[in-house]
Amino acid sequence: MKYTYYGQSCFLLETDTKKLLFDPFISSNPLASKIDISKIEADYILVSHGHGDHVGDLIELAKQTKAQVIAIPEVIGWVMKQGIENVHPMNFGKHTFDFGIVRMVWATHSAGLPDGSYGGNPAGFVLELDHKQIYFAGDTGLTIEMKLLADLYKLDYAILPIGGNYTMDVDDAVIASNYINCNKIIGVHYDTFPVIEIDSKAAVESFKRAQKLLFLPAIGETIDL
Length: 225
Known about the structure:
This is UPF0173 metal-dependent hydrolase HQN85_06570. InterPro entries: Metallo-B-lactamas, RibonucZ/Hydroxyglut_hydro, UPF0173, UPF0173_UPF0282_UlaG_hydrolase. Residues 7-189 form the Metallo-beta-lactamase domain. Belongs to the UPF0173 family. There is one protein chain. The protein is of the alpha/beta class. The protein is built from six helices and 14 strands. It has helices spanning 52-55, 58-65, 73-81, 147-152, 170-179, 200-209, and strands spanning 2-5, 11-14, 19-22, 44-46, 68-71, 87-89, 94-97, 100-106, 123-129, 132-136, 157-161, 184-188, 213-215, 222-224. The chain has a seven-stranded mixed beta sheet, with helices on one face. The longest helix is centred in the C-terminal third of the chain and has 10 residues, at 170-179. It is globular, with a radius of gyration of 16 Å. The mean pLDDT is 97.
């Protein structure tokens, strides 16, 4: 499986047969100015919540790729108003897709939509695909509900926000990695704005002290999972 980072919380997971894009926010992110979104391909687009820095390119990419959009029902309602019909609404439960199993899980955050309407609850996802279990936390603070994931899964990777202010910071993400019992963490939601800038070297060292690995791929970089 391959992971490609597009900045903020946007990334692509590629299996042998499917491409899953998450929280598409690229064209309005100055740090991702070298990414040509016209070349992005996806079979599915998973959306954690409706804030602009997670759905900025959602409609354009959904139209371009014809991907199915997976999100909380309120986000799906907004998406359909933009003319997107290939959708799959979820709430906090599981569903089996042709690429694997998705469980929508709790996140602590707010969740309005770009037009100011109600965006439902924010969420994260646990994916079982290609013989791996991967947790994408979405935008969230540290929450005790994360401990439940250690009872349900043996996570291979966790994709966690680490920028602070709006979400967990590095220290909280280390605690979260203990809660979910996962030793391989990919950081997202950092450096895009001044208020969420981090010391990347110090962040890696913080996870190293906890005997864990923190991956911080550059924007546009692809790593093997």
